[in-house]
Amino acid sequence: MPFMVVISIILYAIGTVIVYHNIPAFEKAQKIRFIIIGMVITFILTCILCNIAAGKIEGYQKELVSTTKNVGILLFSPINLIILIPYLGNILSKNRDDLLDDSQLKTRFILLAVITILVIIMELGYIKNFYLGSLLSIVKK
Hints:
Number of strands: 0
Number of helices: 4
Largest sheet: none
Number of domains: 1
Order of helices and strands: HHHH
Strand content: under 5%
C-alpha cells in the first residue's frame, strides 16, 4: 500500500503540473484554486466509480475489497485528473482570453462531456477487472 501512495503522489504531481500549464490566463492563486477544486471533483468522481464497481464484487472478505477499493481510488483519481481537468482548464482559459466564440465554447464543452462519459464507462469495467485481478492475486498468496 505505501508503494501505491507514492505512485499516487507522483501522478498527482504530474497532473498538477499539466493542469497548471494548461491555464495560462489564470493568476497564480486562481490556478491553485482551480487545481484543488479539480482534484476534489476527480476524487469524488473516482470514489463514486470505485464504490459502484466494488458493489458488484461478491464472495471476498470485506476488508480485502475495501483495501483493493482504496488502492483503486489512489490510482485512478490522479489519472482522472490528468485526463479531464487540463482540457477543462484549457477551455476556460481560452474563454477568459476571448479566443473562443459561443459555438466553439459549446462544442468544446459537449466534447468534454462526451469524453467524460466515455472515460466513466471504460473505467467502470476496468476498475471492476482491476479489483477482481487484485483480489485473485491476493487470495492465491
